[in-house]
Amino acid sequence: MEQFFFKLSIMLVPALMAITCHEVSHGFVAYRFGDGTAKSQGRLTLNPFNHLDIIGTLMIFIIGIGWAKPVPVNFNNLRNPKRDMIWVAAAGPITNFCIAFVSAMLMRLIISLGGQTAGMAYFFEPMILMLAFSVYVNLLLAIFNLIPVPPLDGGRVAVGLLPYKQAIFWSRIEPYGMILIIVLVFFTNMFSYIISPALGLGIRLLAGPHSGVVFGVTSLLMK
Description:
Elements: H1 2-32, H2 37-40, H3 54-63, H4 81-116, H5 121-145, H6 153-161, H7 164-171, H8 174-187, H9 190-207, H10 211-221
Main location: membrane
Subcellular location: Cell membrane
Transmembrane segments: 12-34, 54-73, 85-107, 127-147, 175-195, 201-222
């Protein structure tokens, strides 16, 4: 039980921030391009309780990746639906990449300051652990969502980029998309051969000489 509350104290805030900002960014960009659906339903807020999906949140603590309730977007309200869909869909992963970058820079700064400040380890350690997990969870969320299968963001970006006939064909996969994603993740080596290497590369690029901290923290938390 003590181990559970330790993990909760480190993972909860970064995880909620990652999935909340991901969803809000979709709604905000849609609003800027003409669709006010998310705004009218009170989803353009950073209050995580407006976005939480209970099962999706629990999955973060079980398998390291989760989800929130999707922000509603009516693509027909967008000024240029096919083009604007690309930006609305891409907003989520872009936001997660930005949060991962900021988290990594703050972690590197704090580690540097901690090495120069004797007796501050007790103060800095929880911050470093949370920032390290923030790097991990935001990169994982961004990379996973870039899988080009609707309804994931990468799938909707693909629909926006493809020529009209191919876009119509690919968009028709959406009702079965989650089944396809489950098959790819749990019954193929996609996670081992694609997602994990991309995640590792992202961590090394952002955390630099302190990438071992991120790997160590996530290994500890995912036990």
